[in-house]
Amino acid sequence: MVTISVDGILTTTGYTQEDYTMLGSDDFFYVGGSPSTADLPGSPVSNNFMGCLKEVVYKNNDVRLELSRLAKQGDPKMKIHGVVAFKCENVATLDPITFETPESFISLPKWNAKKTGSISFDFRTTEPNGLILFSHGKPRHQKDAKHPQMVKVDFFAIEMLDGHLYLLLDMGSGTIKIKALQKKVNDGEWYHVDFQRDGRSGTISVNTLRTPYTAPGESEILDLDDDLYLGGLPENKAGLVFPTEVWTALLNYGYVGCIRDLFIDGQSKDIRQMAEIQSTAGVKPSCSRETAKPCLSNPCKNNGVCRDGWNRYVCDCSGTGYLGRSCEREATILSYDGSMFMKIQLPVVMHTEAEDVSLRFRSQRAYGILMATTSRESADTLRLELDAGRVKLTVNLDCIRINCNSSKGPETLFAGYNLNDNEWHTVRVVRRGKSLKLMVDDQQAMTGQMAGDHTRLEFHNIETGIITERRYLSSVPSNFIGHLQSLTFNGMAYIDLCKNGDIDYCELNARFGFRNIIADPVTFKTKASYVALATLQAYTSMHLFFQFKTTSLDGLILYNSGDGNDFIVVELVKGYLHYVFDLGNGANLIKGSSNKPLNDNQWHNVMISRDTNNLHTVKIDTKITTQSTAGARNLDLKSDLYIGGVAKEMYKSLPKLVHAKEGFQGCLASVDLNGRLPDLISDALFCNGQIERGCEVALMKADLQGPSTTCQEDSCANQGVCLQQWDGFSCDCSMTSFSGPLCNDREESTALLRE
């Protein structure tokens, strides 16, 4: 039987197991701690004692040893380790520290814990995410790895994700990831964490609730070669290797909150003093929790969304078009015209299992690549694109290459609707292993679960506008025409980093700033000019977009005939746009809405769409017209697609609702045929008449495009009215007493006065 009493009061009684009755004293008797306290069997305590002991006596039937007196007298049987003062003093407390920002951290000496080791500490926070401890060993390449660049390291980490505490450990034979406690631990209370390890096995305890673990494989050596980082990681991460399993490191989630009483292998660490020595910014030598909620003062500007953190506010600026701690700095805009891109060529190949991606876009095109990660050596990709006016997320983890036999192919999610409305939209992607979430603006999130156990995404590049790494693509998405802003990937705002020169691995020809986009303009110089392209593919649905500029009142812009009576026509009639079609139930006419005729020598944007429910939409600049049709739903087109007009003899056989008797004279640009961006000259099956690239420059002003001769105040004499034509102007002299091309020829009076 064993009894324990405190201050003469019996506290507890227990019994030894089995027939054990003798306590041997042949080896050592430790007071105040031991060389390896964390490894004592059955003990949840890993720290040596700090404080005062008095009259320490050991006695049995035959022996009485006054241990504290013998140690003070220097008895040869006694050995003293560390600093022991033989008087009771106030022991210096291990002051807590606060990591005030995600960028703050402390660097501790290398942890030499090859076979055994222990770490304990207390923490307190209200923040859901943060890397608390991390260290790794020397990089090594897997001998039989399918991918020669896949570097493995021994590592140790403790992190917080979504309020839960995780232990991560890899000794070379595989990673273990243990949730230390089922409840969340970001409630602002103090929690005591105790990690103990002996070879492949050990425990992680939170407030004495212990979770055991056993590492896979045969390795029992944890070979750490780098510093032990507390609270986060340095800004310059050169030389650091981040295992894909440590999500907070790759997501750039630093810890914000308090830490105290850090012990490593039973030895206390004065982290306050270390922070002072390292002159660490953002580390405060105390811990207090402010009672006022920081978000009550509305610190986030420009409609940023505020979240209360640990003694700080956190602004989500992703939906604002602004950056900065308080969403106070306007984010840079990139303009893309279909031939432009921005490509981030990362210094090292990346492998991730978790990503946070957000961006803002504005486009009138229903199709186009927004952003994609690409690899030079695999089909791995995380891709965002516009697809029929919706945002499409594709995540493909190339299982075939590494022979993991668990992938069913790319995972896809769709969100949003009619997003090609030339308004700003915000897209957010969150991936955590096999879990996917896609959000557009404030709409409900779309979620998905990836098949199989393979979760590692490999990429060398982050691309926008155009995908240039095409080797492993089965189909190439359309190039993007529009504007991008606030592209953030795992905490890195890449557009602004590129513009400011903060990173040197950007390649781009997209243009900074918001610019009106006129892509691939072509001039049809006469009404007899036209091109023929391959048949328009619009059987079940359709998204067409183009820009035009003209001074002509009438003209055929687009025509494609089909089986039976099926056809589609877009034309100008007296300056207004007509969309005419027949799906098999008879011809229909939809007139586009505009306040005035469109032959005003200004660029106009036209979007024409038909969905699978036969809802037809015509949008001219900002004005929208819709109409639903019943009956047949398929547009079965055959023969060539004519742009700008048709052969002269074809006009008389055009359907009855079509007014055109001649072709379109003016400029066309940014032509998008269901996501296909044709080059009207290079892709033409044949061309007729005078067709030139560009849109003719009019006056001396370089950015004014249009006819070579334009109406001026004095173009027509004697108050004649100037009529603008595409290739010049004419004068209406009917309300004057003059005639001639410029109303400067005096007419002879021919009127007779009769009684």
UniProtKB/TrEMBL annotation:
Annotated GO MF terms: metal ion binding
Occurrences of domain Laminin G (ranges): 1-88, 95-287, 333-506, 520-695
A GO term from the CC aspect: membrane
Membrane topology: Single-pass type I membrane protein
Protein's UniProt name: Neurexin-1
Record's function text: Neuronal cell surface protein that may be involved in cell recognition and cell adhesion. May mediate intracellular signaling.
Record bears the keyword GTP-binding: no
Primary localization: membrane
Compartmental location: Membrane
Keywords: Disulfide bond, EGF-like domain, Membrane, Metal-binding, Repeat, Transmembrane, Transmembrane helix
SMART domains associated with the record: EGF, LamG
InterPro entries in the record: ConA-like_dom_sf, EGF, EGF-type_Asp/Asn_hydroxyl_site, Laminin_G, Neurexin-related_CASP
Limits of the EGF-like domain: 291-328, 707-744
SUPFAM superfamilies the record matches: Concanavalin A-like lectins/glucanases, EGF/Laminin
